[in-house]
From TrEMBL:
Domain DUF6705: 1-144
Taxonomic superkingdom: Bacteria
A Pfam family annotated for this UniProt entry: DUF6705
Residues annotated as signal peptide: 1-19
Taxonomic path: Bacteria, Pseudomonadati, Bacteroidota, Flavobacteriia, Flavobacteriales
The species this protein was found in: Chryseobacterium oryzae
Protein name: DUF6705 domain-containing protein
InterPro entries: DUF6705
Swiss-Prot/TrEMBL keywords: Signal
Length: 199
């Protein structure tokens, strides 16, 4: 009985490995820069089920980063997830970065904290590289249209220094009841380049 179970497990692993078609972050980065991508897509990548960080490019971001900007103190923790699926029903899994953020005001009061949230509830996750810069997506106070792309990049001459810039989405549904001070609302992440230091 024990041998039958081991054979079953072994065959299951082999079947799973054969079913998974691996592509690379570089292939998908190249795909995103194709001039005809909007019309034709990337048919050569359609069968891929796992986008792997074969060259460990994501490792440069892993760790805790701290910085200050416009009177706020930022602590950002970035973790690399392997073969990660947002939902179990997804057909495609990725090696990606999941982020957690702690933001304090100039007096040390916590403005935002996602440090103890599960991966799926941090609302700060990576996609892929775009011209060498890693692109993530962040959602803060969605009722105030606080959602958008975050671009992070470590410095070539100093890998312990990272820059971050946030580009807020222009589309979305403003909820005035949940965001009464929208005209004076300031997003958590800066729209100008911020420098963070690895701890």
């Amino acid at each position: 009985m024990k041998n039958t179970f081991l054979i079953f497990v072994f065959l299951s692993v082999i079947t799973f490995c054969k079913a998974q078609v691996i592509g690379t972050l570089e292939q998908f980065e190249e795909c995103s820069m194709r001039p005809n991508r909007d019309q034709e897509g990337c048919p050569d990548l359609e069968n891929i089920t796992y986008v792997k960080d074969t060259n460990n490019r994501l490792n440069q971001f892993v760790g805790t980063w701290k910085g200050n900007y416009d009177g706020k103190q930022y602590e950002i923790k970035l973790e690399k997830k392997i073969n990660y699926k947002e939902n179990i029903s997804d057909n495609l899994s990725w090696d990606r970065i999941i982020g957690r953020i702690l933001v304090k005001d100039s007096s040390g009061n916590i403005i935002y904290n996602s440090m103890n949230k599960p991966d799926k509830d941090t609302f700060f996750f990576g996609y892929n590289f775009q011209r060498g810069v890693y692109m993530m997506y962040f959602v803060g106070n969605y009722s105030c249209l606080e959602a958008g792309d975050v671009f992070i990049e470590t410095r070539i001459n100093n890998p312990n220094e990272m820059t971050l810039v946030y580009f807020q989405d222009k589309d979305g549904l403003l909820n005035p009841a949940k965001c009464p001070n929208f005209s004076s609302f300031t997003p958590l992440l800066p729209g100008q380049k911020m420098t963070l230091i690895k701890q």
